[in-house]
């Protein structure tokens, strides 16, 4: 279970991280959450838990920047279904669906890594232990350019080909 970081929100809407002892931007809060921490935001004056409004505000800011997180049709339905039905939907179905998606994605990533390790081991690039396979480092771009051969011409094509075609055409045409 993730650790919970306590953040204080002051009257001027500034956020203060009690763990690091510094002020945070909303992007800093997003980074903390993406690092795996849960957060709890409390009003500095009253001690009231204001986590939900702060998170909703962060989602709205992200929506302004990306303009693709929540489709308009979803937002319209959200407004239409105000009440107990919507609350039940969010608490049960949406949360369970998101958790199932995350578990499925983790399982896919795990299996894909196993597949890559198996492929590397079978190709002779890996060691006896498939988990110890390390990727082959790519050469730096400058070395790649130096090793790149000059553009080859096909056997039927030479530097003189356009001239030869012109000569052939001139031979064919009756003068």
Give the structure's gist in a few sentences.
The protein has 175 residues and is of the alpha+beta class. The chain is 53% helix and 10% strand. It has a four-stranded mixed sheet.
Please write out the topology.
Elements: E1 4-9, E2 15-17, E3 22-24, H1 26-34, E4 38-43, H2 51-66, H3 72-80, H4 84-122, H5 141-147, H6 161-172
Parallel strand pairs: 1-4
Antiparallel strand pairs: 1-2, 2-3
Cα-based radius of gyration, to the nearest Å: 31 Å
CATH class of one domain: Alpha Beta
The main β sheet shows up as: 4 strands, mixed
Work out the helicity level: 40-55%
**DSSP helix count?**
6
Q: What is the residue-averaged pLDDT? A: 75
Percent range for β-strand residues: 5-15%
CATH topology of one domain: MutS, DNA mismatch repair protein, domain I
Shape: extended
In the predicted model, the low-confidence regions spanning at least 5 consecutive residues are 136-154
Number of strands: 4
Descriptive report:
By secondary structure, the protein is of the alpha+beta class. Among the domains are: 4-69, MutS, DNA mismatch repair protein, domain I (3-Layer(aba) Sandwich), CATH 3.40.1170; 83-133. It is 53% helix and 10% strand. It has 6 helices and 4 strands; from the N terminus they run βββαβααααα. It has helices at residues 26-34, 51-66, 72-80, 84-122, 141-147, 161-172, and strands at residues 4-9, 15-17, 22-24, 38-43. It has a 4-stranded mixed sheet. Strand 2 (15-17) and strand 3 form a beta hairpin.
């Amino acid at each position: 279970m993730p650790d919970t970081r306590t953040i204080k929100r002051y009257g001027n809407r500034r956020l203060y991280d009690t763990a690091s002892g510094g002020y945070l931007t909303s992007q800093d809060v997003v980074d903390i959450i993406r690092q795996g921490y849960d957060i709890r935001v409390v009003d500095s004056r009253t001690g009231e838990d204001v986590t939900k409004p702060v998170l909703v505000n962060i989602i709205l800011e992200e929506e302004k920047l990306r303009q693709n997180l929540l489709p308009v049709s979803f937002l319209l339905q959200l407004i239409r279904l105000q009440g107990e039905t919507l609350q039940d939907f969010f608490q049960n179905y949406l949360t369970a669906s998101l958790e199932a998606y995350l578990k499925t994605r983790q399982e896919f990533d795990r299996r894909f890594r196993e597949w890559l390790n198996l492929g590397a081991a079978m190709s002779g690039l890996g060691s006896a232990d498939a988990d110890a396979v390390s990727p082959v480092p790519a050469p730096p771009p400058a070395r790649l350019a130096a090793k790149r051969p000059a553009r080859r011409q096909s056997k039927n094509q030479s530097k003189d080909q356009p001239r030869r075609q012109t000569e052939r055409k001139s031979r064919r045409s009756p003068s």
